[in-house]
Each structure stands twice: as C-alpha cells, then as structure tokens.
Design a protein that fits this description.
The protein has 395 residues and is of the alpha/beta class. It contains 17 helices and eleven strands. The protein has helices spanning 21-24, 28-38, 53-59, 83-99, 105-109, 114-117, 129-141, 155-163, 175-189, 204-223, 239-252, 269-276, 300-309, 321-329, 346-356, 359-362, 382-389; strands at 10-13, 49-51, 63-68, 122-126, 145-149, 167-170, 192-193, 230-234, 258-264, 310-316, 370-375. Helix 11 (239-252) links the parallel strand 8 and strand 9 (258-264). The relative contact order is 0.19.
Length: 395
C-alpha cells in the first residue's frame, strides 16, 4: 500500500483525570535509582535520537524525532532497560530477606552473591523482547531463568532467549495465557515472576520495569532543545507508554507534550479502557504482526498514569506496518537509514496515517508540531525483517 494514503484508524479521547500519578506511581526516586544503576552497566551508551526532516516536511509537521532503541546493549530493544533492572531489584529484595542484611545492587552486579543468586529462579511471560532482557539480566547476575511464550512468538525470538541461557516454554494460546501459566507455575515452585504487567497484590517488579525505561526517556529529553508538542507511544500492556509519559511530565512539567497512545486494531486494550474509563481487557482473535503489542489486558499500574496523562488513543491496521518499516530503511531525501522492527514503527505509522486523513487536525498536528517517537526495537527477528523488506512483500 501507499504509506502516505489514508489508512483506517480509530480514535478515542481519554478522560484526562487530574491527579499526581506521574509523580506518585513512578516517583523521581524510582527513576533516579534506575538511571543511576543502569548507566553503570558494562556496555551502556545512549541510543540515537534521529531527526527525520524530509519526512516531516512531506507529511506537514515541523519536526520528527525518532528515539532508535535498536542498539540498546546489543539486545535490539528498549526492553533491555526494564527486564534486567527489575530482575536485579527482585534479587536484591530476596537476598536481603534471606541473608538478613542490606544487599546492594552493586554487590549483585559485581558478582559478590553469585552462589546465592543461582538458587533464585526468575520467570516471566513474553512476546519476545521482555523475555530476552530478563534472560540477559539473569545471565549477568547468575540467576536461573524460565521464559513462557505463546504459540505465535517467532522461533527466532525464542532461540535468542535460549542462547542467553533461558529455559523457554512454548504454550498454546496467546500472551495472556502465557502470563497466567507463568504465574501459576511460579507460585507452585517458589519461583519469582518478573513481569511488566501489574495486578492486585503484584506491583514492585512492574514498577521497576517502568523505572528502567526512564533511561531512554531522559536521554531523549536531554538531547531535545525544546519540549516536543506530541509524543506517540506504543500500547501493549501500557508499561512503556506510562513510563515515558510520567518521565516527560517530571522533566518538562507544564510543557509536557500531548500523549497519543497507538495500538494494533487487533489488540486495543488501552483504547477500550479509554472508551470505558476503566481498565478493560479484550479478546485477541488474530495475532498482529506487531508482536510486542499483542496484549489483551492492560497493566493496572500503567493505566493509573495513562488515564491522567494520555489525551488520545488510536488504532492502526497491520497493513501500515511493512510500508513504514520500508520507509525508514529506504528514507526520503537525506533522512538517515533506520532499521526498525514491527512494533517500533507503530507511532510513526499512526502519525503518517493521521496526517494523510482527518485525524491529524483532531490530534492538534500542524506545521509547528514537534513529534517525539519511540522506536522501541531494531531487528529482533532477522527473518521477519528480511521478509518485510522484500519489495513485493504484502506484510
């Protein structure tokens, strides 16, 4: 399809409740501790904030800034910041409890408790990137790792987790089914769930995951000369979007940008939550190509932030994903080449589609708009990327 042609989109407006969730759910201390720790890790380097002036001119906005997370720690995804950090925090809490003394993050990072970590099994469900981050973190810190994946997770992503030492368990069903099984088997065996999704009685690891993502947001804010007017954020369970929205609020205050949430039309739990003004699960009948966003139930902790910070919720069809990936890889004018994964381009695809239709005006977009996008992953499955890049691809 022509990426600049009108694509079917749905739009809903959030209720925008007034409150302090951007400071209460994720505090400055939560963010500060995560940033202070992660920036000490071997291999840390800020990822690029890419400007796309030719594309911005083509679609009629002032600036497009794309935070490219492909190079993050060699794992190809922003998730490297969340799962591994949350694993470290789980180990810290459990070791401090077992040993009856304060164990620091640096102690674990430096291998002082590797024998003790080897006795603590961490588990999670994943569409790919979160599990890869958790497996990478467990390998670094010496803890066993079990990752549950659903039927539609690609074998390439499963193998990447195995190569990091994780036991990978594939189930029938969808992402939410894998979450349920991970929780049940962890409870039966005394393992510890490291999830990016919160539920009643389970909040600390998801909070740590979202705190870890703040490294990415602070890097972007530090690199920008002025506050963006808009930010388009991928949905999923809401952890990424809530973390970014909260950090933007803390960083820019009253100048914080308009927050637009983007989801696949086949997995739009945040869109439905906005329509009903309450966390709302949806049934996923067909899996979207945007594997990392194929989530049917929102994180309640993330929703607490989004119901106050997000203004707009839009859905996009799978048909715009392949053309947007190819547009980044074969850019207009002198725009730089960006190799992005399927979930990474959701925000850009929605921006282009909005400007091609009537939604752009509804979202307050014009020639003065400065748009921030989170390119959440690079090439996390080479076979899928190669197929999408094929000129005759219908993906």
């Amino acid at each position: 399809m022509d990426i600049f042609a009108t694509a079917p989109m749905a739009h809903a407006t959030g209720a925008r409740h007034q409150g302090d969730a951007a400071h209460r759910v994720l505090s400055q201390d939560n963010f500060g501790q995560a940033i202070g720790e992660i920036t000490q890790w071997d291999g840390y380097a800020p990822t690029p904030l890419v400007s796309l002036p030719a594309l911005a001119a083509k679609i009629g906005v002032g600036e497009i800034h794309y935070k490219h997370e492909g190079p993050r720690f060699g794992l190809g995804s922003f998730k490297a910041l969340g799962g591994a950090y949350a694993a470290l925090r789980v180990l810290q809490r459990e070791l401090s409890s077992r040993l009856g003394k304060d164990v620091t993050l640096a102690d674990i990072r430096n291998g002082d408790y590797s024998d003790d970590c080897a006795k603590i099994t961490l588990v999670s469900a994943t569409d790919g990137n979160h599990g890869r981050s958790l497996a990478w973190g467990c390998k670094r810190f010496g803890a066993p790792c079990r990752i549950y994946i659903h039927a539609e997770v690609s074998e390439g992503r499963a193998q990447a987790m195995r190569e990091l030492g994780a036991d990978v368990i594939r189930i029938e069903g969808d992402y939410d089914d894998s979450v349920d099984l991970a929780r049940a088997e962890a409870e039966q065996n005394g393992w510890f769930v490291v999830s990016d999704t919160s539920w009643p009685g389970y909040s600390e690891p998801p909070r740590d995951v979202m705190a870890g993502y703040s490294v990415m947001t602070r890097e972007a804010c530090d690199a920008l000369g002025n506050a963006p007017t808009h930010v388009f954020l991928q949905g999923g369970v809401g952890g990424l979007a809530a973390s970014v929205a909260a950090k933007l609020r803390q960083y820019w205050g009253d100048q914080s940008p308009r927050v637009v949430i983007v989801e696949p039309d086949m997995a739009a739990c945040l869109y439905e939550s906005a329509r009903k003004d309450a966390p709302t699960a949806v049934n996923i009948e067909v899996e979207t190509i945007m594997a990392g966003l194929s989530c049917g139930e929102p994180s309640e902790m993330a929703w607490d932030i989004l119901r106050e910070e997000a203004t707009d919720y839009v859905t996009i069809p799978d048909s715009v994903v392949g053309p947007t990936m190819r547009l980044l890889a074969r850019p207009l004018g002198d725009d730089p080449v960006v190799e992005a994964g399927e979930s990474a381009v959701a925000g850009l695809a929605a921006l282009i589609a909005a400007q091609a239709g009537i939604t752009g005006a509804t979202l307050g977009l014009d020639s003065n708009s400065r748009v921030l996008l989170i390119g959440s992953e690079g090439i996390t499955d080479p076979e899928i990327f190669a197929a999408v890049m094929a000129e005759d691809s219908n993906v």
